[in-house]
Design brief:
six-stranded antiparallel sheet, 182 residues
Length: 182
């Protein structure tokens, strides 16, 4: 990328130098060469824009892995006890209102996650009540109520409805996470 920019800059300088030389010496040959240098510079810049745009678009529409989503939301785990089971990324804000994760973990890692944000205290909720709280827009695999009869629920939601909800098994080894950003 930097080579393309350097080449474009050099051809721009050559264009200016040849154009000035042609005007000062009143020779059309220099002016024609300057136009050739300008054309080369335009080609270099066009190729650079195309290359960067192609790479940017490719990475923008390539789905992230569950591990990449986890690390972006929660940071790199301190232990090797995280095993991603399911994930759904938010591709288009306002249309896809949340990111959902389902993973196995250990109590120490869950505690690390909870320490990173101001989550409300753990609430033990019967599984049936959790089922009623959840939106029908969630993926089919997002079923925290099937983990146990009672779940630990942690939430960190702001006044605009954005934040995170964590549904954990009582032993803190299985977690459903919902990151809401509307």
């Amino acid at each position: 990328m930097y080579t393309l920019l350097l080449n474009a800059g050099i051809t721009l300088l050559v264009f200016i130098a040849l154009l000035l030389a042609g005007i000062i010496k009143k020779q059309m040959g220099y002016i024609y060469l300057s136009l050739l240098a300008l054309l080369a510079g335009i080609i270099w810049v066009s190729w650079g824009v195309y290359s960067v745009g192609k790479k940017t678009l490719r990475s923008a529409f390539q789905p992230r892995s569950g591990t990449a989503i986890y690390e972006a939301l929660l940071g790199k785990p301190d232990t090797n006890c995280v095993s991603m089971l399911h994930h759904r990324d938010q591709m288009i804000p306002k249309i896809d209102t949340d990111i959902t994760l389902h993973f196995k973990t250990c109590p120490r890692e869950l505690q690390r996650i909870l320490n990173n944000k101001a989550f409300k205290e753990s609430v033990r909720i019967p599984a049936a009540a959790v089922k009623d709280r959840l939106s029908s827009a969630l993926p089919d695999w997002f079923r925290p109520a099937e983990m146990n009869d009672t779940l630990l629920v942690f939430s960190s939601i702001d006044d605009y409805g954005n934040g995170q909800e964590i549904y954990s098994s009582p032993d803190s080894t299985e977690v459903y996470l919902r990151d809401i950003w509307d």
